[in-house]
Design a protein that fits this description.
Length: 348
């Protein structure tokens, strides 16, 4: 690749597209060449997103893979499930590397994907696609043509539990995740469920026992465990714009101390710049990671009940989507992992 990589954001009119542009336009190794949108085709990006005034000078263009592929080296697919699987093969056949932010290329098993989503039109690519969680798969990501960027909840949960599961310190069939998310996780489209009067002064669970991020979590946790892992996952919607806080529970195989668990986490995430283990007594919060690529972790060993309780916080739009996509891009392009992602959290 050239020193400055020409990239396109395919489907740039949603929140993840906006977040991608916010990061990429300041990335020293990137030339943001195209941003596509059917709805806003021909309109300046800054007219649709005034926050990018005098920062992004592009206008939205038609989402035409053939036209984009001839002038693009890497494309970020920020489009809905199903749309991504339709266009990814066209970019790949033209030699363009792909980071897909939908769920279409996150699963190794076609049957699992189709059981939770819809029929897959490019199943031949599933074995090639790399699950884009850098802390687990950085070496495969470096050489990948196609990366399936993880979902926001799975990022929060998998990073929180990975050291315990990989170390065989907890029973992989005892996992519980109670997660709270801001409203941007539902996307930018208008919806009664995410309207002001439905969300403000309210806290509600949704898709209990049936959220589509569950099999994604189980896929990666099972790989870490070396056997089938299952998780009870309950998401909640909270009245804030962005952020996820996960409280995670796992039954210990044998008694552990806080110091022993801390050593396991430090060793697992050694030299991984975007996972921060909080000092004892300091608990992660969404404000601590807002608009950054960090995942903050803390834990407590509940000796009486034989459990480890882990708290994990991420920004759903940055670490849970667009920031992680750029992290994957950096690995693919041979750049330092942190390039363009040295974003200080916006707290308060």
């Amino acid at each position: 690749m050239t020193a400055r990589v020409r990239v396109a954001v395919y489907g740039a009119s949603g929140y993840t597209g906006l977040e991608l542009m916010r990061i990429l336009v300041r990335h020293p190794g990137v030339e943001l060449a195209f941003a596509t949108s059917r709805e806003y085709q021909g309109r300046p990006v800054a007219e649709v997103f005034p926050a990018l005034t005098d920062i992004v000078t592009l206008s939205f263009v038609e989402p035409d893979p053939a036209a984009l592929a001839s002038n693009t080296e890497v494309v970020f697919l920020a489009v809905p499930h199903k749309t991504a699987m339709e266009v990814a093969p066209r970019f790949l056949s033209a030699g363009v590397r792909v980071v897909d932010l939908s769920a279409d290329f996150r699963f190794r098993d076609q049957a699992v994907y189709e059981g939770w989503y819809q029929p897959h039109s490019a199943p031949e690519l599933l074995s090639e696609a790399v699950y884009g969680l850098p802390e687990l798969h950085r070496h495969k990501i470096r050489t990948a043509r196609l990366v399936g960027n993880p979902g926001c909840y799975p990022t929060c949960v998998i990073l929180g539990l990975a050291p315990l599961v990989k170390g065989r310190l907890v029973h992989p069939d005892s996992l519980i995740a109670d997660c709270k998310s801001g409203v941007t996780g539902a996307g930018r489209g208008a919806s009664l469920a995410t309207s002001y009067c439905e969300v403000t002064d309210n806290l509600k669970a949704y898709k209990v026992g049936e959220h589509r991020h569950t099999p994604e979590m189980e896929q990666e946790l099972s790989l870490l465990a070396g056997r089938k892992a299952t998780i009870t996952f309950t998401p909640h919607l909270v009245p804030m714009s962005r952020g996820i806080l996960g409280t995670l529970y796992a039954q210990m195989v044998k008694p552990l101390t806080d110091d022993e668990v801390r050593k396991v986490y430090r060793a697992f995430y050694r030299d991984m710049p975007f996972v921060r283990l909080m000092p004892p007594g300091i608990w992660p919060s969404t404000q601590q990671v807002r608009a950054s690529n960090y995942c903050d972790l803390a834990f407590k060993v509940d000796q009486e009940r034989g459990r480890v309780v882990v708290v994990s916080a991420i920004d759903n739009l940055t670490r849970g989507a667009s920031g992680q996509a750029v992290h994957n891009f950096n690995l693919m392009a041979g750049f330092p992992e942190t390039l363009g992602l040295d974003l200080v959290p916006l707290a308060p």
